[in-house]
């Protein structure tokens, strides 16, 4: 690990207890990064830290909510206290949301924007001073194909994800000369609790043409059929894209939305 692609780097991953965040935390650690695993509750974040340690890596857990400014300041400080620097933020925490525009409620809409967009901004805002002070850093924001393409019944979710891409481009321009690269990933479907919740809420292909709900198994088959590559993705495949954008292998890449979707958006 000392000679891995992330050797010497410190990476914060939000939403690290599950899915894409967990896979990214494990991969970055396996490539030598010291990882700060951030999630809402300490127990699940500790589980990831234990898995990283069992594989010979180094990590700490921080229980924090990306929508709470003070939590994000505490997250950044915990990284600095433990490891003295912050090289990478994978701003990844997110929640599902389903509904066409006329079905969204103000409260549901506000929550989607709060977690999936404001949370990305607040976590970025918290780490930027330390990155600016050192003149280096990489932000990798988790958007979605929903942020670049019309996906049925994901109005609020897609609006938030498109907002993430706008924020990404704005930060990429603002901080490029100061050594900070900002990029995003736009994943297609990798089966996670978030995706299951989306289908349980009746979104994506979880509703038939007649509006009736289909079984989870059928939803998964229908979803798979929409992927030119012939299968859904894995969280490990998405983590590889984050690794690329977080590491020095992408040293001349900033302001990019890297689509990782098995051809779905084609
Ligand atoms: N899985 C997919 O197919 C897919 C596709 C496109 C985009 N995404 C995006 O990828 C990201 C991760 O999704 P996933 O599928 O791994 O989901 P997941 O549900 O497996 O993991 C999300 C994690 O974020 C945490 N989280 C939620 N709200 C939080 C908050 N306020 N503060 C801190 N942590 C919080 C959850 O506790 C959970 O551990 C999300 O932003 C999601 O929108 C996922």
What's the CATH architecture of the largest domain?
A: 3-Layer(aba) Sandwich
SS class? alpha/beta
What number is the mean pLDDT? 94
Overall form? globular
Heterogens: nicotinamide-adenine-dinucleotide
**Regions with pLDDT < 50 over 5+ consecutive residues?**
none
**Spatial strand order of the main sheet:** 3-2-1-4-5-6-7
In short:
With 266 residues, the chain is of the alpha/beta class. It is built from 8 helices and 7 strands. It has helices at 19-30, 42-54, 69-83, 106-134, 155-175, 193-200, 216-225, 235-246; strands at 10-14, 34-39, 58-63, 88-91, 137-142, 180-187, 257-260.
Task: Walk me through the structure.
With 266 residues, the chain is α/β, with parallel strands linked by helices. It has two domains: 203 residues, 3-Layer(aba) Sandwich (Rossmann fold); 43 residues, no CATH class. It is 45% helix and 15% strand. Helix 1 crosses helix 8 and helix 4 packs parallel to helix 5. The longest helix is centred in the middle third of the chain and has 29 residues. The chain starts with 9 loop residues before the first strand and ends in a 6-residue tail after the last strand. The relative contact order is 0.15. The model has no long low-confidence stretch (mean pLDDT 94). Nicotinamide-adenine-dinucleotide binds next to helix 1, helix 4 and helix 6.
